[in-house]
Amino acid sequence: MGPQDAASDTPTPVFFLAGGTGISAETLGNLLLAQFPGLNFTRRKIPFITSVEKAAEVMAEIDAAMTDSVTPLAFSTVSDDPIRQVLQGTQAAFIDLFGSHLDTVERILHVNATHSAAALHGVGDTLRYDRRMKAIEFAMEHDDGASLRNLAQSDLILVAPSRCGKTPTSMYLALQHGLKVANYPLVPEDFDTGDLPRPIAQRADKCFGLLSTPARLSQVRGERRPGSTYATLAQCSFELRRAEAMYRAHRIPSINSAKMSVEEMAAVIMQSSRLPDLA
Amino acid sequence: MGPQDAASDTPTPVFFLAGGTGISAETLGNLLLAQFPGLNFTRRKIPFITSVEKAAEVMAEIDAAMTDSVTPLAFSTVSDDPIRQVLQGTQAAFIDLFGSHLDTVERILHVNATHSAAALHGVGDTLRYDRRMKAIEFAMEHDDGASLRNLAQSDLILVAPSRCGKTPTSMYLALQHGLKVANYPLVPEDFDTGDLPRPIAQRADKCFGLLSTPARLSQVRGERRPGSTYATLAQCSFELRRAEAMYRAHRIPSINSAKMSVEEMAAVIMQSSRLPDLA
Lengths: 279, 279
Prior knowledge:
Two copies of one chain form a homodimer.
Chain A: E1 12-17, H1 23-33, E2 41-46, H2 52-64, E3 73-76, H3 81-87, E4 93-96, H4 99-109, H5 123-141, E5 156-161, H6 166-177, E6 181-186, H7 198-201, E7 207-211, H8 214-224, H9 233-249, E8 254-256, H10 262-272
Parallel strand pairs in A: 1-2, 1-3, 3-4, 5-6, 5-7, 7-8
């Protein structure tokens, strides 16, 4: 088989359609597209398709992207029946990530689905919002060892040398999972003995360590302080070696952040530390 | 039709299976389950299923949840063929959110899929990580008007009275979309005239306003400072009215955060302000 438009590199237009934010349409659609590494795509996300009028507009936009040689792909998680029916009228390829599985779930559960836009919003969302907000505030207050108050209240303490990814990982865990995450920076003085630094010495059970590679850490530090001792390969290598030994000695689980996304780090940490999803 | 186990409220075990973090398996699976509001489910996410050995363990765990009256549901986004084949051997309902659409995409693109775990990680991820990290640092530095430096570099300035959701929304936009978001708190003194506060007066084009309902705002403020004037319904109502008038006068788009999730606010703001996804 050859690609859609073998004569040129014309990209295939891809649409992600959703009644809500479009996060799962986009994530799952991109997972499918990643199976076709040689091809080019242009991507457009259209969230909040909540009326048949809007759906008709969207359908017209997708159809306008059709050419003799290129069929657009439209990945949809729209759950409202009348709106889905309008979108299914497109001449493009409509990939119904939602509807195609609903029959299966109905069959297994022996219950009819409501076939309406999901009522995901209720009083529970306010609680969830409050939990996430408090978790974010906790993370900001306890960023980079800024506050050692309330460490006892934290669900997790991320420990690492400077620039190994503590802050984005803390924020992600707070925002996506409602977890109270403090983070504690290991500075060179912390390696004078093999002991854990005093503020976290009694809390090793809550600690999780981050590591990186010397090359990656040196690069990240160099962007912040170009030409500094702090950013040299030798210094980065020393701190990482000592941090790793410290984690091992105190049975603190750890991961190397150099080749992981924030999402992956968060998922690994939650699995390893058996943290509940509070959001 | 009646539910699986009409005699009791036995919840149906639900598994979210993925080769990666499991975010889309979970989001899309929950969207499907939301169509069955009367039923109970127990949920378990199993991410990073990256070997056939791990897949066999997972399959055994799912099968162990089968009973005479209850069939578990397993939503999967696993993309690696040999691993999927193992998981498909389960006696439970295997809902293949990925594989069931791959044929369609192959047919439209006239190209065979690689049928392997997607190679999502490359040099692009390091750039993405750096952009997100810088955006988070920017958001922290510019939180609650903490710094007015570099406002010119921001992609967006969120403006609102205290406790309308500026901080979590800024963090979400930074983390998920790599956007540099400053936020500026409107305090009662800012309403003495109808003018925009000086630091943002020349930047109305970058501003986006948040609002809430007086009841919700009063509740959130009351948790922070119980019994304060700041938290009274009258004060909240006054500030919200004035903020709304200010947004209108200066053509600043706005949304009411009272009934929206952070994800929804972020998606609406990006759509309204035509912000690109930089992550």
